[in-house]
């Protein structure tokens, strides 16, 4: 592959990656709509909690992370592919994300928070019933 072609590929990948949002993603908005329709009230992206959870239900001491399968490496998921170029870079980045997620979850658990993780593919492919999950894990008082 010539350096010109590699440069074009990296520019295209850079444009693609910069277009990916970290907040207010479609899966996250879907989760919020379901929670709201069930009567739950919540806060978003709380910076005072480890990992800035996507959704925080303080009344129930519960946090919800809506994870993208690619960035958070959902095991055995077709959306968790690894780019063919610069694999060493990507593997390092993915491992850092996984380790950071683990540390944040341990910190939240040690502070008494319940953690729910919803994967992008589960929402995209309608593999799960969000209402059932929320009824099971978020106990109304």
Per-chain topology:
Layout: H1 3-18, H2 26-37, E1 43-44, E2 55-57, E3 62-67, H3 69-72, H4 87-110, E4 114-119, H5 120-124, H6 130-137
Parallel strand pairs: 3-4
Antiparallel strand pairs: 1-2, 2-3
Provide a concise account of the structure shown.
This protein has 141 residues and is of the alpha+beta class. It has helices spanning 3-18, 26-37, 69-72, 87-110, 120-124, 130-137, and strands spanning 43-44, 55-57, 62-67, 114-119.
Outline the structure in words:
- With 141 residues, the chain is of the alpha+beta class.
- The protein has one domain: VSR Endonuclease (Endonuclease, Chain A), CATH 3.40.960.10.
- It contains six helices and four strands.
- It has helices at 3-18, 26-37, 69-72, 87-110, 120-124, 130-137, and strands spanning 43-44, 55-57, 62-67, 114-119.
- Strands 1-2-3-4 form a four-stranded mixed beta sheet, sandwiched between helices.
- The chain is globular.
- 16% of the residues are buried.
- The model has no long low-confidence stretch (mean pLDDT 86).
CATH class: Alpha Beta
Unreliable runs: none
H/E topology pattern = HHEEEHHEHH
Main beta sheet strand tally, sense and closure: 4 strands, mixed
How confident is the prediction overall: mean pLDDT?
86
How far apart the termini lie comes to: 62 Å
Q: CATH superfamily membership, which one?
A: VSR Endonuclease
Q: Which strand order does the major sheet show? A: 1-2-3-4
Which structural class do the helices and strands define? alpha+beta
What form results from the Cα inertia axes? globular
Round the Cα radius of gyration to an integer and report it: 17 Å
Q: Tell me the fraction of residues in β-strands, as a range.
A: 5-15%
- Level-2 CATH architecture: 3-Layer(aba) Sandwich
Helix share bin: 40-55%
- The DSSP helix count reads 6
Task: Give the count of structural domains.
Answer: 1
> What's the count of strands?
4
Give the CATH topology. Endonuclease, Chain A
């Amino acid at each position: 592959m010539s350096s010109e072609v590699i440069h074009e590929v990296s520019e295209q990948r850079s444009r693609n990656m910069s277009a990916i949002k970290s907040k207010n993603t479609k899966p996250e908005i879907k989760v919020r709509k379901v929670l709201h329709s069930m009567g739950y009230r919540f806060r978003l992206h709380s910076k005072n909690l480890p990992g800035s959870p996507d959704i925080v239900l303080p009344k129930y001491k519960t946090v919800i992370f809506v994870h993208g399968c690619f960035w958070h490496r959902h095991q055995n998921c077709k959306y968790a592919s690894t780019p063919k170029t610069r694999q060493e870079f990507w593997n390092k980045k993915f491992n850092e994300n996984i380790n950071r997620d683990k540390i944040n979850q341990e910190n939240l658990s040690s502070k008494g928070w319940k953690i729910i993780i919803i994967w992008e593919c589960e929402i995209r492919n309608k593999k799960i019933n969000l209402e059932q999950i929320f009824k099971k894990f978020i106990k109304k008082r």
